[in-house]
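Sample 3 of the quickstart, ligand inosinic acid:
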Amino acid sequence: MNQDIERILFTEEALRHRVGQLGAQITTDYAGKRPVLASVLRGSYIFMADLTRAIDLPITVDFMSVSSYGSGTVSSGQVEIKKDLSDSIEGRDLILVEDILDSGNTLHYLRTVLQARKPASIRICTLLDKPDRRSQPITADYVGFTIPDVFIVGYGLDYDERYRNLPYVGMLKPSIYAES
Ligand code: IMP
Ligand code: MG
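Result:
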């Protein structure tokens, strides 16, 4: 796996440090509340696990799964809910946890759908933000790192379902895309 990586963008240590800061910020901002953190699978599973452990509040967690990408590196623009949240979010303070905000298609769609369920509030927490590629009017409330328009893998993020288990975030060698 490591030999397919061109360059490491964020090391394990950098990720741990930044995720700790995000958790501390959420702990301060939601003092006295018990937000529900909803993770958008599959890309955010590792971020979610680390972020929730960096929050010192009586949170609950929930999970949903959407598809928008197929196996390529460019969003199809079509979003479909594959697995919905298990619990009602009515009246809850909802924090949507994403791996990466790219075109914004996924989160724009999800925010609209979830807003209709009448949560007390919705905020978005994304590990990575690629603002250059945004095609929907959406910004995250919490951003781990802002990155340029490069395709990255690791720490939950995949290329064709691989590389999710790399402990760091890195850029794939272009030759890997060329093979498929
Ligand atoms: P959006 O709907 O275009 O904002 O795309 C969001 C989803 O696309 C993310 O949750 C990821 O699953 C995927 N994605 C976007 N950029 C990358 C990338 O650089 N590497 C891996 N997955 C990505
Ligand atoms: Mg994702």
